Amino acid sequence: MKVRDVLPVVLMFCCACAHAEAMLSIYGALGLAVRCKSNATPQGASRCGIGATPNAYGDLGLWGIEDLGSGWQAHFNIEMAFEPDNGSLSYADTLFGREASVSLVTPIGRFDAGRLHTLGTAAEPLVRADPTGGGGSYLETLWPGLNTGNRFNNAIRYRFKQGSVFGHALMGIGELGTLRSTVGRTVGAAIGYADGPAYVVAAYQNNHDKNDRVNEVASIGGHYTFERFTLHGAYLHAKREQGFMIGAYGEPLAASGLGLGANVPSVGGFSTDFVLVGITYPIKPMLILRGALFYAESRDGTLIATEGGVQRSAYAVLDYALSKRTFVEAGVDWNRWTGGWSGFWGSSAESGVAGPGNPFRNGFSTRTSISLGLRHDF
Predict the structure, then answer these.
(1) Mean per-residue pLDDT for 90-105?
(2) Domain coverage including residue 99
(3) Domain count, the chain
(4) 164 and 273 Cβ atoms separated by less than 8 Å
């Protein structure tokens, strides 16, 4: 299904609801950039093409709210993701792959249900700590999500906020799981503090795949704003059983854009320690620099090998505001994966290009890319 096929329906829905008492908002982002990357095939070729900007893919969403009185509210949120270079849907051709949820706000907190993401999982501290708010500038620097995932089907969540303290708890049963079974189930919880320039949140998450193998994650992250700049930081510890199958149901820990999509078992059983440090620095009111360094050490194996390995990444994104909603974006990112992670960049699994040897490791250990594009938020 193409985005152009559903846009008329979405816009008609907006018009129909605009006269109702409930408040309805349409939002999204669209960015296109020219990007060149090294080691894009098993043969070491470089590639240049048009795709998303460093800090935004294509997305379109509808958000609605109705006041029910006495502190009660009803909400809904549906959000699609699409590839801005060709208009095709992301998330395995799922129409509302980013989120599809209904919510009820009560005097004791908020309850959400549907396809939910981020809040209440171990991804929350990483997303909140990252200077771009999403884990990096491209899929190459979104790989920390391999430890946490960020979207879960058939999920319920509870949220509360009391003064400067807030908390979130989530349970997702995936496509084939049940409340009485741990198969395909994800549970997570987060607790945080936000006051003035300080923001910090800690979380725990437990995933079971379709064979009931386990992945556990604990994380903490946040940021602090000084007079001229903001510092960001996060730490994550994850441990998974050998053979844990990513992406089996409800996208637990999937990263299909990296060639590690549904039903791909972990070659090694391993534990990982991950650290993020970053900065947001307004050079001028209309010119902002965002950058981060990632470091992760995996012991006893990786997703693609039975030996441990190290992942290093760095990115910088420069945003120049032409208006409140339109930005010129320039980005550079660098990755070096060694040990049990070596050979992944440009491999047949990552690039889709045939080559001899192990399809997950017949590439290179390093990749560098640069990009320049235009983004519009609405």
Answers:
(1) 88
(2) 3-377
(3) 1
(4) no
